[in-house]
Specification:
single chain; 36% helix; globular; 3-stranded antiparallel beta sheet; alpha+beta; 3 strands
């Protein structure tokens, strides 16, 4: 049984990839193509959840997931 990138979340993941927020665009341009020495994936499915950015290198460390929308809302009230 797979928990990553389930078929049931495929359409939602594609939609999210096409409609990035300005903050997500800035961050993606910074981390794409192994710019930081590690690989990131965008709109990655884990179970029924979809995370904005997922670092493959740190797959066994809980902080590997970054949901940018949550942080913008939580810390800047946007």
């Amino acid at each position: 049984m797979t928990i990553y990138n389930k078929e049931s979340t495929k359409v939602k993941r594609r939609t999210l990839k096409k409609s990035m927020t300005p903050e997500e665009k800035i961050l993606w341009e910074t981390v794409r193509r192994d710019a930081l020495g590690v690989r990131f994936r965008r709109q990655f499915g884990i179970g029924e959840y979809i995370v904005d950015f997922y670092c493959v290198y740190f797959r066994n460390i809980p902080c590997r997931i970054l949901n940018l929308d949550y942080f913008c809302t939580r810390f800047w009230g946007e």
